[in-house]
Amino acid sequence: MGKPLYLTTTLPYVNSDPHLGFALEMVQADVIARYHTLLGDEVFFNTGTDEHGLKIYRKAAEEGKDTQAYVDEYAAKFKGLKEKLNLHPALHFIRTTEPRHVAAAQEMWRRCLAKGDIFKKKYKGLYCVGDEAFIKETELVDGKCPNHPTMEPIEIEEENYFFRLSAYQEKLLAYLSREGVVVPEWRREEAINFVKQGLEDFSISRTKEKMPWGVPVPDDDEQVMYVWFDALTNYVSTLGWPCSAEATQGKPEECLFEKFWMNGFTLQLAGKDQVRFQSIMWQGMLMSAGLKTTDTVLYHGFITSGGQKMSKSLGPVLAPLATAVANG
User: Fold this and answer.
1) How does the average pLDDT of the chain come out, rounded?
2) What does pTM read for this prediction?
3) Pairing between strand 265-271 and 5-8?
4) pLDDT tens figures, 27-67
5) Distance between CA 79 and CA 85 in Å, rounded?
6) DSSP state, 3?
């Protein structure tokens, strides 16, 4: 038996039904979870749903639904994949609207703020709603985000909080210099090259007036967290963080963070377009908060349809739930 294994997929955005691309990631993770279980390793297998952000707020409004009711409906569909795909019985499910996650995201904020890595400034830039991220003009392809070529970037100008990612350039290069932190190897080289080009501080909040659907920023009633800062924290909130082994004596199920994250082997699965978010931004946040960085992030390719990435935002998609019903 080896170290306890912490295994997680990314959290899919609940702006539509599950598609086959995410089902693939789930099955890949399930194979790894079952293999390590057969070896006798303790496994914590995590998935869930990413439920905040402008894209979801707009989609709920388009359908004339209350935002919470909207995410409840779609979260149930994603949770239903466990039974439909016959996934590992020990699979855990975290929702970013759960109180335990909100508390963890706010604690992550407070720790990064205490480190001096959060500051406020006015900013103007192009924003891709599909990625829920700002994008440089030099990254545009024919005036569009390369990940969402059918969507027009929007210009945003407001005062937000920023994370001082630039302060972690050397530490991130040192982290990425270790073989195995990113698989496959050429994705690790991609991450290293991205960091070497120079890291920019990134926005981690939005004004509540323009985007009211998000985790409240601690001690600022006018701002909510940028969806990526909030969502990435799920990887530790699902383990009960913030907590300590000493604080949960007699109730180990309430805090598995020390066992599986700090003292175990952490393995994250993600799509190939996630390198910047998972292996750079998230690792910088962990460093700032004083937490262990991820041992390995395994990146996979896309299922394509009509020559392009299968995506809920872009279409066309194949829905695993509908397929299961049709074949039932």
Assistant:
1) 88
2) 0.85
3) parallel
4) 999 999 999 999 999 999 999 999 998 889 989 999 999 99
5) 11
6) S
Among 277, 114, 118, which residue's Cα sits nearest to residue 201?
118
Cβ-based neighbour number of residue 167 at 10 Å: 17
Residue whose entry in the numeric block shows the structure tokens 């439920």 = 51
User: Residues, the chain, total?
Assistant: 328
Of 295, 1, 238, 209, the residue nearest 104 (C-alpha) = 238
Chain center to CA of 226: 12
Cβ count near 249 (within 10 Å): 9
**Three-state secondary-structure class, residue 218:** coil
The DSSP output letter for 128 is: E
Core vs surface per residue 43-81: b (16+ CB within 10 A) or e: bbbbbbbbbbbbbbbebbeeeeeebeebbbebbebbbeb
SS3 of 75, please?
A: helix
Pairwise CA distance, residues 106 & 129, whole Å: 23
pLDDT of amino acid 324: 45
* Band of residue 194 on the pLDDT scale cut at 50, 70, 90: very high
- Per-residue DSSP letter, 141: B
How far is the C-alpha of 146 from the C-alpha of 143, rounded, in Å?
9
- Extract the tokens encoding 162: 């920023």
Q: Which of 323, 216, 310 is nearest to 16 (CA)?
A: 310
Kindly list the distances between the CA atom of residue 103 and the CA atoms of 27, 127, 178, in Å, as whole numbers in the listed order. 30, 27, 32
Longest dimension (CA), the chain: 58
Question: What's the rounded Cα separation, in Å, for the pair 95 and 117?
Answer: 26
**Residues 6 or more apart whose Cβ sits within 8 Å of residue 294:** 181, 235, 266, 267, 268, 278, 279, 282, 283, 286
201: left (phi over 0), alpha (psi -120 to 50) or beta: beta
**Domain made up of 5-327: CATH architecture:** 3-Layer(aba) Sandwich (3.40)
User: What does each C-alpha distance from 248 to 45, 201, 254, 257 come to in angstroms?
Assistant: 21, 36, 7, 11
Quick: pLDDT tens for 117-153. Answer: 999 998 877 877 766 677 777 777 777 787 767 777 8
